[in-house]
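anyone seen this seq b4? input:
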Amino acid sequence: MSSPDSVEIHQATSPSDIAAIRALFTAYTDSLGLDLAFQSYAEELASLPGKYAPPTGALLIARSTSSAPNTTHSASDIKLGEPLGCVALRPLAQPISAPSKATTHDCFNSLPAASSTSPSSGIVPSSHPSFLTHLRCAEIKRLYTTPSSRGLGLGKALVDAIISEARELGYDEVVLDTLPSMAAARGIYRSLGFAGIERYYETPLEGTEFLGLRL
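predicted toks r here
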């Protein structure tokens, strides 16, 4: 396997897909080394697909469509049908908690054009005059690729796919949170036009960055 052309990305619907997603989610959180109890993560894992289910959400899994050595690094070879990555989308109707209005990004508002963001911080102020109300917002979650698939462009392919799903579902904006340790993911988001936004929920994780993209 040498490129994302040897990968199929599809909705996780079958029991085997859901089991694979659960394993990928677990590998994702293990790689972070963080306690995500504040996100009700155990309940999320147990109830998959949960809030990621159609018709308002999406749960995508990437599987190998070929069996070949991965020559991009020293990781093990990739097997036919092997789960290689995942990404999810869920509706975001309101802030996950109730932080103050002055510091909360309103997910029912669209993002202004990139040129309208603050040149110093890149943050879109919620008071900006071009913000529009009552637009649908979704949150991208759990982007993960296995070590054996890294270096193939799969992360970007998954983000492209989930953005396409959001558009097809009629969302006007997607938002997400990311951490300083997620350098590769942050690079993908920035390359696709995501811009800094004010936080839309309270988090105990230091350095969390909130990003959004108008669709």
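Residues 95-104, 108-134 have pLDDT under 50 and may be disordered. Helices lie at 15-32, 41-46, 154-168, 183-191. kinda curious what u guys think
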